[in-house]
Amino acid sequence: MSTRPWAVILGASSGTGAAIALEMARSRGFDVFGVHRGRYLEQAARLEQEIAQTGRRLVMHQADAGSPEGAVKGAEAVLAHAGPRSVKLFVHSLASGSLGRLVSGEQDQLHHRQIERTFHAMAHSFVYWAQALVARDLLAPEALLLGLTNPLTESHLYNTVAITAAKAALEIYVRHLAVELGPRGHRVNLLKFGTVMTPAVQHVYSPEALAHLESTHQKMNPVGRMCTVEEVARFVPVLLGEEAAWFNGATIDFTGGMTLRLLDLLLNPRR
Questions:
Q1: String of DSSP letters for 66-134
Q2: Which residues form a coiled coil (predicted)?
């Protein structure tokens, strides 16, 4: 077992989760326990190589992290590899939601199983893992539990009702866990950032839609471009520092002003 602190990252094989895993190993010297479903095996293998080059350890655990059973088995594996009080950072980066409408009466109407699966993966599993980590005394002193979210809960985007509702539930879970874990010396926060280009996004959208997505974000964001997963990853270690210790139960806005110009773009499209 390593004496270094560990980061447990759900959804670590690609996208934001992989970027955070690499950043924690490279800049903070953390060992990493990553959970993934095996969908992006090539990216997972690349992450293993990159973290190996940092001299830190990566354990990749292939399982369904979004179920109660997956959380229990995953925590047991963390205990076996890292030992008690080893987890300094826990990151929930699961992107497994169903798209659809509620009462369309058409093929895109969400089935209750799709809604349940979305909530388990994108909201409830944060609680399942918190319970499993606490029950096995895996959290290191002053550990940070971090959920990831987006601005969808502030507006409306076609076909994303299940995902948006799950993200809203995740925000409430973060607040309550912050109150419960605060007396133990731990913090629980939610990091909100805008659209980033990930394999999951590229899987959902066609090349034409992706081009439109990127051009629209160039107009929306004050800086004139999309955020990157690397930028999100570089900010996560900041939240572990003493300077950020007073963030607790917070939804931290890292959107870069993404939604500031929405009304302007709608009412003045030619400007």
A1: TSHHHHHHHHHHHHHHH-TT-EEEEEE-------BBSS--STTBPPHHHHHHHHIIIIIHHHHHHHHHH
A2: 37-64
